[in-house]
Amino acid sequence: MKELITPCLWFNGKAQEAAAFYCSNFKDAKITAQSPIVTEFEASGQRFTCLDGGPQYQPNASISFFYICETEEEINSIWKAFTKEGVVLMPLDNYPWSEKYGWVNDQYGVSWQFSLGKIEEVGQKITPCLMFVGEQYGRAREAINHYSSIFKNPKLDGVLHYGGNEAPDKEGMVKHAQFALNGQKFMVLDSAQQHDFSFSEGISLVIHCETQEEIDHYWNKLTEHGKESMCGWLKDKFGVSWQVIPTILAKLMSDPNTAEKTAQAFMDMKKFNIEQLVLASVKEN
User: Fold this and answer.
1) What is the pLDDT at residue 232?
2) Given this model, what pLDDT does residue 2 score?
3) What is the model's pTM?
């Protein structure tokens, strides 16, 4: 299966340090690319981009990462490392959904849910989880339907709803749901608890597109009742940030002969135009 969507984590000068921290604590993790602004790493088949974007945004728990640990040794080791300078949201303990589970914001502000279990229960070791809070509360199911109408091969694995005695959450809201888009798993939940955060550019989801037709499709669908931004960034109607990026961009930006001209071209774009990028990269000064 070709990977389509990857998370981008926003940092303020800590991208390389954070990527090194994750790779030193996760199994099967390695740095795959590095530049002064962007560091990419892969952990158990999941690619991440760490972006040094400055102080404007920071990650928060509205998008967290559900990480399955297959042994007690693994979860204990990871928990010790991530809580050392992090903030515990739910202590490592026994819960109805897991014999050992904990939720923590690490020292860089990125939110992780660590759970002892088997990968087969989800289908992948690391899964993005979107939490709908504040003005977005109660829209988790709507989001599943919306994203399922946009991406290929949607599949709903299951939905657990709140009961009538789980205030402040309303009966029927999504307590937890798991679904797949083109084979990639995602989780969503509603939370009526008081939270001082919401979806932001601190964590965005990057769609890697081979063709202009794909770029047009995702851009047009995701900006409906949403908001366009610059350089391939947008916010959908729930406030979730996305980047719709052509795969050829990495090649053009990694070549010193084309990088500067390519960057000059896309800085003026909202939605990426592949033809204009290629033309700009070969244009004579």
Assistant:
1) 94
2) 52
3) 0.94
**Which sign does the torsion angle of CA 76, 78, 79, 81 carry?**
positive
Residue pLDDT, tens place only, 97-116? 999 999 999 999 999 999 99
SS (H, E, C) 35-55: CCCEEEEEECCEEEEEEECCC
168 upstream amide cis, omega within 30 of 0: yes
Q: What are phi and psi of 83, to 5 degrees?
A: -90, -10
User: Does residue 15 contact residue 54 with C-beta atoms inside 8 Å?
Assistant: no
